[in-house]
Amino acid sequence: MKQFWGTRRASARWLLITFICGVLIYPSVHLRRGHLDADELKAFPTALKRTLQISAWLTIVGLVWMAITYAFINAI
Question: Tens-of-pLDDT digits for all 76 residues of the chain?
């Protein structure tokens, strides 16, 4: 993914991080698809893995709240 998106733009770096978060949140899916090796998952630093997972869930919650707020404002 790094070769596909690059690393110069902030949006490319953000997409790369969100892809990594998705791999860490749902590793079984990515293991089956071949995006991830089981040894790579075991070797990933635990503290960083936990931080990325929390960050991804907070991003999802924030997006949901933004959608709810947008719908509420448009309903008024």
Answer: 555 556 677 777 777 788 888 888 888 888 888 878 889 888 989 898 888 888 888 888 999 999 999 999 998 7
Contact 63, 71 (CB under 8 A): no
3-state helix vs strand vs coil in the chain, percent to 5: 85, 0, 15
CB atoms within 10 A of CB 24: 19
Q: How far apart are CA 55 and CA 72, in angstroms?
A: 26
Extents of the domains making up the chain: 2-75
Distance separating alpha carbons of residues 66 and 69, to the nearest angstrom:
5
